[in-house]
Amino acid sequence: MSISSSVDAPVRPRVILGVGGGIAAYKACELLRRLTESGHSVRVVPTEGALKFVGAATFEALSGEPVSADPFDAVHEVPHVKLGQNADLVVVAPATANLIAKAAHGLADDLLTNTLLTAHCPVLLVPAMHTEMWEHPATQHNVALLRSRGVIVMEPASGRLTGKDTGKGRLPEPAEIFDVAKLLLARPDALPRSMEGVRVVISAGGTREPLDPVRFIGNRSSGKQGYALARVAAQRGATVTLVAAHVADLANPAGVNVQRVGSALELRDAMHAAAAEADVIVMAAAVADFRPVSLVTHKIKKSDADPEPVALTKNPDVLAELVAARREGQFIVGFAAETGDAENDVLSYGRAKLKRKGCDLLVVNAVGDGKAFEVEDNAGWLLTADGHETPIPHGSKAQLAAAVWDAVTLK
Question: Could you tell me which residue ranges the DNA/pantothenate metabolism flavoprotein C-terminal domain spans (predicted)?
Answer without folding.
Answer: 195-408
